[in-house]
Write a structure and sequence with these properties.
The structure is a single chain. The chain has about 900 residues and is an alpha+beta fold. It has 32 helices and 26 strands. Strands 1-2-3-9-4-8-7 form a 7-stranded mixed sheet, with helices on both faces. Strands 15-22-26-23-25-24 form a 6-stranded mixed sheet, with helices on both faces. Strand 19 and strand 20 form a beta hairpin. The radius of gyration is 27 Å and the shape is globular.
């Protein structure tokens, strides 16, 4: 659940009058006679569509004493509706293969579905049925209550969530905003299915909803489908919204422990909400305070912080603004708080630099274009703009930001940076106890009956999607070339926005490339790269980026995004930083000390100890993956060691650059040649391959973590399988049966749906060039750790002993085939996919190649692969949290 934007619009009790569709370029708006507002935004990046059904109800409208009612009903909307059972909904969601999810906030509950464009009608059928009603049976709620209580425990086990919750409670005491939409275990224990049904019948109505459709659709046709499916749903008379009367904030501070290796300081203030005339100026103020040329981030190069930014979070009728600063273990958070408060007080007193106001506005223009590079994000920003900000479109927010003046920013700074009413929260790092070997063997002896994945008869409007098992044609047509220095360039021209995005990757592996005794040099180098180039120091480099509204990041993974008109300059700056980093001596001294402190804290943190324990159980003691930085190895690093590592690792013959956007392949190639063509490699390539490993033995390890109320659990085994092995495909197909997607996978049915032991469970096949790991991850209460592990082991054994049913195999094939277009629904996703395939030595069209394998595979092939490679008796179990019994 995202504690982000939210709103509740007071809609008319009677049905809204029908509004004629209003077309605006690629956008179509309409209001049906029953009051449902519909917005269709066309974006042809990929043959994919996202639907976002936004109900204007959330935790604000929850009955007194039941703060999680809206969240509970969000869960129950996945448990079936009249005309659509829970099993049918789960099967359809799994077949379509997309992002089938939901999100509850203070005044808004969203239902999100990203699917191939040809399946839009199926997604709309589901949402229309769910708007008409939910089953909310006592039996289904009894089962779902366990899962939602696991979600509560999961969030309460995250120190960052606890810190945020305590800040809200103090800033908004006496209002609905004193808590977020999550809910509590005691309130869920008292909640009944009848209460949830009443909540749905009261608030789930077309005249209390906004439907956003974004993607590769024909707007008029999409609107026609919406009219057909939603048009006869009756509107409802909506109750009055709860009043919100914030009290004066009582200043104060508090501390929470964290299992993270670094600490966090937050200085929080209350502001007006997104519909205030001051909000646009507050948005610009937040951008200015986060700018890397401003004093707040200036704490980082001074060695007083490791990260610093300023955030603004809109709530329905208020806002939450906070400076958030990270620091190393051992630092004095009180002194750091004094520095942060002094900076904010100076801004309130003296104002902000005018140049940073202009930089913020240019970055907002650039961001508005970049949001169009993801179909899912496009649907999200439109939904938030309309339902939360009360605007007609995201462009309206940009227009009001464009009108903000320096005087406006200084005025809201004086008014709202009121440190006399600020609340300070600190997360202090602390170590962990040593990992403890468990007893009794893996999985325990719990006697739990397994659930079964039965074939489910689907309604006619959905069954056609299940029956379609064809390899979808990719819409990508990348142009690939290689520069004389060995650098690979991949260009994909797109015109969905007026931007160009550059993503690069240098194949590397610090475990094999760091010299003995210099462990941690890769971390130090990564922290040094933001300090500019040999030609532009840190501030001058950031000023050059601000002048074109670009984003840039250097490293073994590097990137730059800008408006198309500034592509050449952004690429030039990226190359300057990547090929000629400044690596200043003064910064090295600061960073070396910070990294040494951070490593010391990390090496005793529960999360690190859990990961290291897992690797130690899976691989031999001399395996490179078990190398780790120590404070001593970091402190020994000097300028020569850092520069030698840079020269050894940063080389063009191991690098790939992907460019996507409004640029031709010829123009992109010319620019890359101009700025990266002179990059040269020195000596033979460094080793980047991990060795093979003997089969691991079973083991049980518990890592204490007193800050968690729930255990984070990983079950794993190593495999000699490589990504190039033909058996990868039947294993991947079988893994999709076990834990590949949503409710209808075997692990989710057993552990979540039937037993309520976990909130979520995921299985992963991580296949590499030389070896692989199979993992299952979940979080559960301590007493359920062994029960869940036993179910996982038995399901793996079942995969070996019996072939997968034909209907079940067809369903996961349909799911995997749909991953091809869905993986191309965002520019960043497209680039990451191409870079990942290059890193593994796979062809760029590997998704289509894999899809052809999946179509041809049968159940015996899957069973044979699981028999050959999986060893359920050799699973290692590592838990982090309270000690399981």
């Amino acid at each position: 659940m995202r504690p982000l934007l939210l709103a509740s619009l007071a809609l008319a009790a009677a049905a809204a009058p029908s509004a004629a569709p209003a077309a605006d370029g690629e956008v179509l708006r309409a209001t049906l006679e029953n009051g449902l507002r519909v917005i269709v935004v066309r974006n042809a990046l990929a043959p994919v569509v996202t639907t976002s059904v936004n109900y204007l109800v959330g935790s604000d409208e929850a009955p007194a004493g039941f703060p999680g009612t809206a969240h509970a009903e969000e869960h129950m909307m996945f448990r079936g509706s009249p005309g659509l059972t829970a099993d049918q909904l789960a099967d359809i969601g799994s077949v379509l293969g997309g992002d089938f999810n939901a999100d509850t906030r203070e005044g808004l509950t969203q239902y999100l579905f990203t699917v191939p464009a040809e399946d839009l009608d199926v997604a709309l059928h589901i949402e229309a049925l769910r708007m008409r009603g939910a089953l909310n049976s006592a039996k289904e709620w009894s089962q779902e209550r366990g899962a939602i209580e696991q979600e509560v425990a999961q969030d309460l086990s995250e120190p960052g969530y606890v810190l945020y919750s305590k800040l809200r409670a103090r800033l908004f005491a006496g209002t609905p905003y004193a808590h977020d939409a999550l809910g509590t275990r005691p309130s869920f224990e008292k909640t009944t299915a009848a209460m949830l049904q009443t909540f749905h019948q009261t608030w789930y109505a077309p005249n209390n909803a906004v439907l956003v459709i974004a993607g590769d659709v024909e707007p008029q046709a999409a609107l026609g489908e919406v009219r057909s499916l939603f048009g006869d749903i009756r509107p409802k008379k909506l109750p009055a919204r709860p009043a919100v009367h914030p009290r004066s904030v009582l200043p104060g501070s508090f501390t929470v422990d964290t299992d993270r290796p670094s600490g966090t300081l937050m200085v929080a203030l209350r502001t007006p909400g997104p519909r205030s005339a001051d909000f646009a100026a507050l948005e610009v103020l937040a951008d200015v305070l986060s700018n890397r040329r401003f004093d707040l981030y200036g704490l980082v190069p001074q060695g007083k912080a490791t990260a610093a930014e300023f955030a603004l979070e809109p709530l329905p009728r208020a806002g939450l603004a906070y400076a958030v600063v990270s620091f190393t273990a051992g630092s004095d958070p009180h002194a750091l708080e004094g520095e942060v408060r002094a900076i904010l007080a100076r801004v309130a007193r003296e104002g902000v630099p005018p140049a940073l106001v202009e930089a913020a506005k240019l970055q907002e223009r650039s961001d508005a274009q970049l949001q169009r590079n993801s179909i899912g994000e496009l649907a999200a920003v439109w939904s938030d703009a309309v339902t939360i900000f009360g605007l007609e479109s995201p462009d309206d927010d940009l227009r009001r930001i464009e009108q903000v003046t320096v005087a406006d920013v200084n005025r809201v700074a004086r008014q709202y940076l009121d440190l006399g009413h600020a609340v300070t929260g600190v997360m202090l790092p602390r170590g962990s106890g040593r990992p403890v070997p468990g007893g009794g063997g893996f999985g325990g002896h719990e006697a739990i009956s397994l659930g079964e994945a039965h074939a489910t008869a689907l309604p006619p409007w959905a069954s056609k999607a299940l029956e379609r098992l064809t390899v979808p044609a990719s819409t990508l047509r990348p142009v690939v070339s290689t520069l004389p220095n060995g650098l690979t360039l991949i260009v994909q021209s797109e015109d969905v926005s007026d931007t160009v995005s550059v993503y690069g990757h240098i194949r590397n592996r610090p475990e094999t490339e760091e010299a003995g005794g210099q462990e941690g040099v890769s971390q130090v180098l990564e922290r040094l790269l933001p300090y500019g180039s040999e030609h532009l120091d840190r501030l001058a480099f950031q000023e050059a980026l601000d002048a074109i509204g670009a984003r840039e990041h250097a490293g073994t993974d590097f990137s730059a995004q800008s408006l198309a008109e500034h592509f050449d300059r952004s690429l030039e700056l990226l190359a300057d930083n990547e090929l000629h980093p400044a690596l200043p001596a003064a910064a090295l001294e600061v960073i070396r000390a910070q990294v040494a402190q951070g490593v010391a804290a990390r090496n005793v943190s529960p999360g690190f100890l859990a990961q290291r324990s897992l690797r130690g159980a899976l691989f031999p003691a001399d395996d490179p993956s078990l190398r780790m930085a120590t404070p001593e190895s970091v402190r020994s690093l000097d300028d020569a060691a850092v520069r030698a590592y840079y020269r050894r690792v940063f080389r063009p013959d191991l690098a790939t650059i992907v460019i996507i956007g409004k640029v031709t392949p010829a123009a992109a190639a010319a620019a890359v040649t101009r700025y990266f063509g002179g990059w040269s490699a020195n000596g033979p390539p460094p080793p980047t391959e991990l060795p093979g490993a003997p089969p691991n033995r079973a083991g049980v390890i518990a890592v204490p973590n007193a800050s968690r109320v729930q255990d984070r659990v990983v079950l794993a085994q190593n495999l000699a399988l490589t990504r190039a092995d033909p058996d990868y495909y039947p294993l991947a197909l079988g893994n999709a049966v076990l834990g590949g997607s949503f409710y209808s996978t075997r692990l989710s049915i057993d552990l979540r749906k039937n037993a309520g032991l976990v909130y979520g469970v995921e299985s992963l096949l991580q296949a590499g060039r030389t070896r692989s790991v199979y993992l299952v991850e979940y979080a559960s209460d301590p007493q359920n750790v062994g029960k869940a592990a036993a179910l996982v082991a038995r399901e793996l054994t079942t995969m070996q002993e019996a072939p997968v049913g034909a209907d079940e195999l067809t369903r996961v094939k349909a799911y995997l085939l749909r991953q091809i277009p869905l993986a191309e629904a965002g520019v960043a996703e497209i680039a990451r996919g191409m870079l990942g395939r290059r890193d593994l030595g796979l062809p760029l069209d590997e998704p289509s190649n894999a899809a052809r394998h999946y179509v041809e595979l049968d159940a015996p092939a899957v069973q044979a692969a699981f028999r050959k490679w999986l060893r359920p008796a050799d699973l290692v179990r590592v838990s982090e949290g309270p000690a399981p019994p």
